[in-house]
Specification:
Length: 319
């Protein structure tokens, strides 16, 4: 019978601002030992898992060291620290726009992931801020794509994270983005774009498909210079790559975009020359904990607009 219980706190401290990995053993399964399950689950090979057991890297509740002979217990929690990948440092700061005892609003640079994921772990906005602000319990209320710059909302207290996440889930937060893309004189703007977007796991680019719209974006042309336009984008939904997909579908793909309208390959590590020209410019909301009305504005500028001459020759496409 399943035991109903909450998630216990991690017995392992953070490393470089990164939490230990937590695994809960399945309630059903035929494994004799914790080791047998981890060899299958982690797909790291028995030799790797055995070496980690030998070093005492797997622990249970209360920091109890697990061994290769520890019996399998359904529902048991196991913690360990993953080996950090060899990451390329993103040479741009994460600027703090606002901080109080409940939230931190940061202005994230291009190329820096918001939270640990895949090959980006310690070199993420969350891990950096935890270290720099000495806030080990800091959490992200939402995420920006690694290639997108701008405002991100973080929460200081884990117990309050859900309240701030609900602002995004319930569409109670105002978001405004700025983008630079080709200027097409015949494109009728402003307009509201509605479509159905799907993003398949393992496939880099999202795509539009027939069906009930799940993505809505207001697109306005703020100004233009010759062949370049500066656009104001107001999303009403939050599908993956929504703004990039909608702008590409309008025939004005964002400058510096390696996925739309064509996948040109991933941006090589260490290549910071042509960032995606997309910026989360404004966050506006009523604080669900304090009741204060907030409006934050990014201090960053899109390079293609501020350095017009260097980018204008490539205005017809991405990288």
């Amino acid at each position: 019978m399943r035991r109903k219980r909450g998630i216990p706190p991690s017995p392992l401290p953070q490393r470089h601002g990164v939490d230990a990995v937590r695994i809960r053993l399945p309630w059903q399964g035929g494994w004799a030992t914790v080791r047998d399950h981890l060899v299958e689950r982690l797909a790291a090979g028995g030799g790797v898992v055995d070496a980690m057991f030998a070093e005492g890297l797997f622990v249970g509740e209360g920091g109890l060291r697990l061994t290769a002979e520890t019996a399998y217990e359904p529902g048991m929690f196991v913690w360990f620290h993953r080996e950090l990948p060899d990451e390329e440092r993103v040479p741009f700061p994460v600027d703090v726009v606002y901080r109080d005892e409940h939230i931190v609003v940061a202005d994230k640079p291009h190329f820096l992931a918001t939270t640990p994921r895949g090959s980006h772990v310690a070199e993420t906005a969350l891990a950096r801020l935890r270290r720099e602000l000495d806030l080990p319990e800091l959490g992200a209320a939402h995420r920006l794509d690694r290639l997108t710059a701008g405002l991100v909302l973080f929460t200081v207290r884990p117990a309050e994270r859900g309240a701030y996440q609900s602002l995004f889930r319930d569409r109670l937060i105002g978001k405004e983005y700025e983008a630079v893309a080709p200027h097409v004189p015949g494109l009728a703007l402003p307009r509201t774009v509605r479509s159905r977007i799907v993003k398949e796991r393992g496939v880099p680019a999202a795509r539009e498909v027939p069906g009930q719209p799940n993505a809505v974006t207001r697109v306005e042309l703020a100004e233009h210079r010759d062949r370049l336009g500066r656009y104001r984008l107001t999303p009403r939904t939050g599908q993956t790559h929504q703004l990039r997909v909608h702008m590409s579908a309008l025939g004005v793909p964002l400058l510096g975009d390696p996925l739309y309208p064509e996948v040109t390959g991933p941006v090589p590590a260490g290549d910071f020359r042509r960032p995606l020209q997309l910026l989360a410019r404004v966050l506006e909301f009523t604080d669900p904990v304090t009741g204060l009305d907030h409006r934050f504005v990014s201090g960053r500028e899109l390079e293609a607009w501020s350095a017009f001459g260097a980018w204008s020759a490539g205005a017809a496409g991405g990288r």
